[in-house]
Write a structure and sequence with these properties.
Length: 317
């Protein structure tokens, strides 16, 4: 056995040892956990497969002498860049996850220049794939993140694994993904709208603010809900006499971003056709009036575990 292969074998054994001692079904312990490190948890990156950290960290050059060094080994740093379409006063950042497919939500502190040209830090909320996202910065150092990940009940993979990987930001502003725990789901016995559990994490930090020590709290939770993926839908425009003025039919791939409601329409009926886990069409209906500004649909290909959220905005006359 070569020296390099022997090193890799030791790393794998250490990883197996650590993973076997983690508690499944959450990001970490449900109890509050005080963290002494300056790196703060800012969000979650959910993947269908476990991230191969070794492939991104040039493991041949890493010497693991103790377990504390393993933490740095199991990180994936996110590359960020300023969007060229935005100026320094109101910047927008693009985040690159090294091509890894996943759903995420996080609140990062990013620097930009104020009206006086001074560098200030603002909280930037980002999410993709996680629906119903709720972001709250409770004070200068505490955050609260909640969201829902809709799972494709019609997926080819009736048994699939979801990995909840916590995201951190260090004192230099670098963002990285850390190894998280996995949950295993089976969709065969569940129906549309069934909640299948959640992943959650709470971490607390000691903060030194102008010589005064305070505690900040980072709370993150993602609920998992099974969803029949939409195949097509109709928008029925109704008048005061409950008569159909117009029927608008759409394939899910032709979903409009904005739907302009006819002038004489009093209310809408949304008729959604979706596929259940038996590959059968189910029809659901929803009633919308002029107080409703939008409605949501969820779609996915059969090879996908996660559903994509589509929002249709309504323009009432």
């Amino acid at each position: 056995m070569t020296k390099n292969r022997f090193k890799n074998l030791l790393k794998i054994l250490v990883l197996v040892f650590l993973i076997s001692n983690l508690t499944a079904c959450n990001l970490a312990s449900k109890d509050s956990e005080k963290v002494e490190s300056k790196d703060k948890m800012i969000g979650v990156f959910v993947t269908e497969e476990a991230i191969n950290f070794e492939a991104f960290n040039n493991s041949e050059e890493i010497e693991i002498n103790d377990l504390s060094e393993l933490d740095k080994f199991r990180r994936l740093y996110v590359t960020k860049s300023l969007d060229k379409d935005y100026d320094n006063e109101y910047p927008k950042y693009n985040y690159d996850f090294k091509g890894i497919k996943g759903a995420y939500m996080f609140i990062a502190k990013e620097a930009h220049l104020d009206e006086h040209g001074e560098k200030v830090f603002c909280d930037y909320c980002e999410q993709d794939g996680i629906a119903d996202a709720y972001f709250q910065v409770k004070d200068k150092d505490s955050i609260d993140l909640k969201g829902t990940l809709y799972l494709n009940i019609n997926s080819d993979y009736h048994n699939f694994c979801i990995n909840g990987n916590p995201m951190y930001q260090d004192s230099e502003g670098n963002i990285y993904i850390s190894s998280g725990n996995a949950m295993v789901f089976s969709s065969e016995h569940y129906s549309d709208g069934y909640s299948s559990g959640s992943i959650s994490r709470n971490e607390k930090y000691e903060v030194n603010n102008m010589g005064e020590k305070t505690t900040s709290s980072q709370d993150i939770k993602v609920d998992f809900v099974f969803k029949n993926p939409c195949q097509s839908f109709k928008i029925l425009e109704m008048d005061d006499n409950n008569q159909i003025i117009k029927t608008n039919e759409f394939e899910i791939t032709k979903t409009p971003e904005i739907f302009k409601v006819s002038e004489d329409t009093t209310y809408l009926i949304i008729e959604e056709s979706s596929l259940n886990h038996d590959n059968e069409i189910e029809v659901k209906r929803a009633l919308l009036n002029k107080k409703d500004e939008d409605f949501k649909l969820y779609t996915a290909d059969k090879e996908d575990s996660f559903c994509e959220e589509l929002i249709v905005y309504l323009e009432w006359e």
